[in-house]
Design goal:
Number of domains: 2
Number of helices: 2
Number of strands: 10
Strand order of the largest sheet: 5-9-10-8-7-6
Distance between the termini: 33 Å
Helix content: under 10%
Strand content: 25-35%
Largest sheet: 6 strands, mixed
Shape: elongated
Radius of gyration: 17 Å
Order of helices and strands: EEHEEHEEEEEE
């Protein structure tokens, strides 16, 4: 199964019984980092933990290691070339890298191709600053 570029967040949780219904708790960090908003409606996909998913990058996620999935694909200090795909509620640029991981980049616009330095990397989102607005094309 391929994971869509529109993926907003990915986390593992238990389905809990609550009287006559069932619920899954969304981690606070998804709301805190404005990945998703309380009161909004989202499409939810449930997969057994043992489900194997193939990402766009060709990686296989076996569902066996929750800790492995929680590692962000970047670290503080890393640089990346990104394209700004959308703008957040505060006007910051939003880029997606590696399986939909969100990078928030202030002072950018949709369509900008920029080189950024990661200032803070968290489980589902990173915050970055522009270090080059005209990255060299790597078609060589």
């Amino acid at each position: 199964m391929e994971i869509s570029d529109n993926l907003l967040c990915l986390f593992t949780d238990q389905v809990e019984e609550n009287k006559d219904s069932y619920q899954i708790t969304v981690p606070d960090q998804e709301i805190d980092h404005e990945t998703i908003a309380a009161g909004e409606t989202y499409r939810v996909v449930l997969m057994p933990q043992s489900q194997t998913a193939t990402t766009d990058a060709g990686d296989t996620d076996t569902g066996d290691s929750t800790e492995q999935r929680r590692e962000p694909p970047v670290e503080t200090g890393d640089t990346r070339e990104v394209e700004i795909e959308s703008l957040g509620d505060q006007g910051d640029g939003i880029a997606r890298i590696d399986r939909g991981y969100v990078v928030i980049v202030p002072e950018t616009n949709i369509g900008d191709h920029v080189t950024v330095r990661i200032n803070k990397a968290q489980q589902n989102v990173a915050f970055a600053e522009v270090i080059d607005r005209n990255p060299r094309l790597q078609n060589d």
